[in-house]
Amino acid sequence: MSVDRYAAAPAVVRLESYEQSEIFGDTVDPFGVAEWGLVWRLKEHHFGIREDDRLVAHAGLLVLPLSAGGIRMDVAGLGGVAVAPDQRGRGLAARVVSGALEHARTLGPEFALLFCRPDVAGLYARLGWREVAGEVEVEQPDGPAGMPLRTMWFPLREGSRWPEGPVRLHSRPM
Predict the structure, then answer these.
(1) Of 76, 127, 150, 154, which one is least surrounded by beta carbons within 10 A?
(2) What is the pLDDT of residues 40-53, one digit of tens each?
(3) How, if at all, do strands 136-140 and 167-169 pair?
(4) CB atoms within 10 A of CB 171
């Protein structure tokens, strides 16, 4: 009789810290975003899935100031979403993002926001994230810059609607 090793999937847990080398080893550009030369903020809240004492998935959060359609607000910025290459295709990204969003609801913002490459936007869309229409500006060391990646939002409260109009993250991206 065979036993499904994924039947009792480990829970998403809050992590004190996170080293991306635990998931990616010495990979130079594990998120595939270095070509844009952006400076990113570190996350303040970390969530992960460990199997056999190995970190196999991670998502990070922090609260950031933003203006959208002339409305100033805070958002829960999601970033650093990672799944070990040999563990992909098991739904771990969905689980760790869901766990992070559960915590984001306790932080106060009405919305979560993320930036991603176009090739992974479909994954987030399947999880209920929606694309921000129009250009998004973010802070960089030399001043505001257009965000070259996809920007997506998620409602943290039932019935929340993203404001229409220009978007400016008053922070470096997460």
Answers:
(1) 127
(2) 999 999 999 998 88
(3) parallel
(4) 16
Give the HSE-up count for residue 119: Cα atoms under 13 Å, Cβ half-sphere. Answer: 3
Handedness of CA 43, 45, 47, 52 (dihedral sign): positive
| 22 φ/ψ sector (left φ>0, alpha ψ -120 to 50, else beta) | alpha
Taking the alpha carbons at both ends of the chain, their separation in whole angstroms is: 46
CB 160 within 8 Å of CB 111: yes
Interval 139-167: pLDDT, tens = 999 999 999 999 999 999 999 999 999 99
What predicted TM-score, i.e. pTM, was given to this entire model?
Answer: 0.88
d(CA 174, CA 115): 8
pLDDT class of 6 with cuts at 50, 70, 90: very low
Comparing C-alpha atoms, which of 130, 149, 136 is closest to residue 31? 149
